[in-house]
Amino acid sequence: MSPPQSEERTVPRTHALTEAGLSVVDPLAGDWSCRSGHEAGLRLTDDDAMTAVFVVNDDMAIGLVWALHERGRRVPDEVSVVGMDDIPAARFQQPALTTVVHDFDAVATEGVGLLLEEITSPSTVERVLYEVSPPLVVRESSAAPKAET
């Protein structure tokens, strides 16, 4: 599930799925709210083949988990859910939400540093790509894939 402007969050997901030999499903759009996660979750619950969902923010992941619960799908026994941002409420959900942590302070510090460097010593480089490897905080909403029977 992804809000329309979240390509920087969905491209790595697509790359990782492709690299792992897994099918890539087009993301559902949302507006970053628990409500939109819940609405998307209701649309996804009838897909018995679905075993995991990556959601581009924790609020939408929380809504999705609630929709799965309402429809009788057990998290993480039947469906693993991973959010992104590690909002304070993520650890207090039932089940506690597995999430990707962003160090926004580090990204902002790096960005300001690159900007100051460009101001003081302009280069011919039009764009600088700064990559981060955010950690995954594994909590109760995710489990190892089940073995094929």
Structure overview:
It is a single chain. The chain has 149 residues and is an alpha/beta fold. It has a domain of 96 residues: 3-Layer(aba) Sandwich (Rossmann fold), CATH 3.40.50.2300. It contains four helices and four strands. It has a four-stranded mixed sheet with strand order 1-2-3-4, with helices on one face. Strand 1, helix 3 and strand 2 form a beta-alpha-beta unit. Helix 2 packs across helix 3. The relative contact order is 0.14.
Labels describing this entry:
single chain, 149 residues, alpha/beta, Rossmann fold
Give the secondary structure arrangement, pairings included.
Elements: H1 7-19, H2 34-44, E1 52-54, H3 58-70, E2 80-84, E3 98-100, H4 104-120, E4 136-137
Parallel strand pairs: 1-2, 2-3
Antiparallel strand pairs: 3-4
Helix pairs in contact: 2-3
Protein name: Transcriptional regulator LacI/GalR-like sensor domain-containing protein
Pfam family, one: Peripla_BP_3
Organism: Streptomyces graminofaciens
Q: Cα-atom Rg, whole angstroms?
A: 18 Å
CATH architecture of the domain at 7-102: 3-Layer(aba) Sandwich
Distance between the termini: 28 Å
The SSE string, one letter per element, is HHEHEEHE
Averaged pLDDT = 85
CATH class call of the domain at 7-102:
Alpha Beta
Can you count the helices? 4
CATH superfamily of the domain at 7-102: Response regulator
Summarize the biggest pleated sheet. Answer: 4 strands, mixed
Q: What's the quaternary structure here?
A: single chain
Give the strand order, joined by hyphens, for the main sheet: 1-2-3-4
Which percent bin holds the helix content?
25-40%
In the CATH hierarchy, the third-tier topology of the domain at 7-102 is known as: Rossmann fold
Got a strand count?
4
Low-confidence stretches: 1-5
Shape: elongated
Q: DSSP strand (E) fraction?
A: 5-15%
Keywords: DNA-binding, Transcription, Transcription regulation
Protein name: Transcriptional regulator LacI/GalR-like sensor domain-containing protein
Domain Transcriptional regulator LacI/GalR-like sensor: 48-142
Organism: Streptomyces graminofaciens
